[in-house]
TrEMBL record:
Alphabetized UniProt keyword annotations: Signal
PANTHER family to which the protein is assigned, alphabetical: ARABINOSE-BINDING PROTEIN-RELATED, BLR3389 PROTEIN
Protein name (database record): Extracellular solute-binding protein
The species this protein was found in: Streptomyces monticola
One Pfam family here: SBP_bac_1
InterPro entries according to UniProt: Bact_solute-bd_prot1, SBP, TAT_signal
Domain of life of the native organism: Bacteria
Tagged with keyword Cytoplasm: no
Alphabetical list of PROSITE patterns matching this protein: PROKAR_LIPOPROTEIN (PS51257), TAT (PS51318)
Signal sequence, start to end: 1-24
Organism lineage string: Bacteria, Bacillati, Actinomycetota, Actinomycetes, Kitasatosporales
């Protein structure tokens, strides 16, 4: 499975559309949605995405009373822990929600999920209606093990227009601009960047872009391909060094290591003007629209793709994030449960009401032929922006903690925390990560 969708465009192969809003440290499950179902489905909580997922499930259950599915919600981090434990114990729900990539690969190697290749072959119309590039993270060793669903989610650099106007500065057009803006915002007691650092994966997005902008997608691809000492590539060391320079300069909000993305506190810092900028997934737009009063509707939110790094080899049109979300079927489910799951794939995923609801959250669905609906949305400008980034990117790199195996991903996230806390050097980071390449 190639992590970089090199020269495959979201539109170029036909058009289409998205790691989620992370979590509080200890999450709990939500109420069951339809307790008389024969199959089960766990998925992420958090507004407004939870409402769309629940709405799609309830619509399916109403239309298919003999094939009902019980839904249970979990916060992001709690879900990641619980689903792995359940799968390891052979007690997974019928439908397994995820991000594909390395975690899916581990499920496949353990024989815990169904091979859907022949099912897609028997139902070509289902695959053709979805964005082609979304199938990359669903495909392991040439076989499809998951149904792409929901939306495409590139990572976006957001900024508060009023804060920029008040300080009298322009959005950054390069890494040098970013570093130059730091002291200007600090002088006004404004944090240059908001960051929910306790959630770890939020820090990771900075490295994903810096690796790409400095060395191109090949740098992380070498890690995914298992090349020895790939983390010690000169471009990797340069990226690790630059992010520490930003930390040392005071680029992030004080106390960022204790802020969780699950609480949306990082996003509140942006729309209340306490921080000038924030690097976050495209799903953040819907959260800011939902929670930020008239910040979005009043034109206060600005957004852009991550700027280039001077002298870097990466294409500034590249992006990182999530080419889609994914639903797999537990191999431990009964034959009846597996059939219900496939019926949900065919008749419950991205039906018209769900597509409308996703667009209503400011997200771009993973379904072909939605251009007119996007253009008619109140959020048409942002949706066009998101669609353009995803469709024009020569490389759409999957989020690292999903691309790698769970073992390597956990080591990555732990070391990223230490890197941002300045408790280990770029070289030490590279050495620690080199030890888990291929594991």
């Amino acid at each position: 499975m190639a992590i970089s969708l090199s020269r495959r465009t979201l539109l170029g192969m036909a058009a289409g559309v998205p790691m989620s809003a992370a979590l509080a440290a200890c999450g709990s499950s939500g109420p069951s949605k339809g307790g008389d179902g024969k199959a089960s489905y766990w998925y992420l909580s958090g507004k407004p995405q939870e409402d769309v997922r629940t709405g799609a499930l309830e619509a399916f259950n109403k239309a298919h009373p003999k094939s009902k599915i019980n839904g249970t919600t979990f916060q992001n981090d709690a879900y990641k822990t619980k689903i792995k434990t359940a799968i390891g114990a052979g007690e997974a729900p019928t439908l397994i929600w995820g991000w594909g990539g390395g975690t899916l690969r581990s499920y496949v190697k353990a024989g815990q999920v169904e091979d859907l290749t022949s099912w897609f072959g028997d139902n070509p119309g289902i695959k053709k209606r979805l964005f082609p590039s979304a199938f990359g993270p669903a495909t392991i060793d040439g076989k499809i093990y998951a149904m792409p669903c929901e939306t495409v989610q590139p990572v976006v650099l957001y900024y508060n227009k009023k804060v920029f106007d008040d300080v009298g500065v322009k959005p950054p057009q390069s890494w040098g601009d970013i570093m130059d803006l730091v002291p200007k915002f600090k002088a006004k007691d404004i944090a240059p960047f908001s960051l929910g650092g306790q959630s770890r994966w939020t820090n990771m997005m900075w490295l994903e872009f810096l690796f790409d902008r400095i060395g191109g997608p090949e740098v992380f691809q070498a890690v995914f391909d298992g090349e020895k000492n790939a983390w010690s590539h000169p471009a990797a060391i340069d990226a690790l060094t630059k992010v520490q320079q930003l930390v040392k300069a005071g680029g992030f909000i004080k106390g960022f290591s204790s802020i969780t993305a699950d609480s949306n506190a990082d996003q509140a810092l942006l729309y209340t003007g306490k921080a000038a900028m924030m690097l976050h997934g495209s799903w953040s737009y819907g959260i800011q629209k939902n929670d930020g009063g008239d910040f979005v509707s009043g034109g206060g939110l600005g957004y852009m793709n991550f700027p280039p790094v001077e002298g870097g080899k990466g294409d500034p049109g590249n992006t990182v994030g999530n080419p889609g979300q994914y639903l797999s079927i537990s191999s431990k489910a009964s034959a009846e449960q597996k059939e219900i799951a496939k019926e949900y794939f065919a008749k419950g995923v991205l039906q018209s009401a769900e597509v409308k609801d996703w667009i209503g959250t400011g997200a771009v669905p993973l379904l072909l032929g939605t251009e007119q609906q996007l253009a008619a949305s109140d959020d048409a400008e942002f949706l066009k922006f998101t669609y353009g980034i995803a469709s024009k990117a020569k490389s759409f790199g999957q989020s690292w903690d999903q691309a790698l195996s769970p073992t390597a991903a956990e080591t990555l996230l732990d070391n990223i925390v230490k890197l941002f806390q300045l408790s280990l050097s770029p070289q030490q980071f590279a050495t620690n990560l080199n030890e888990v390449i291929g594991k």
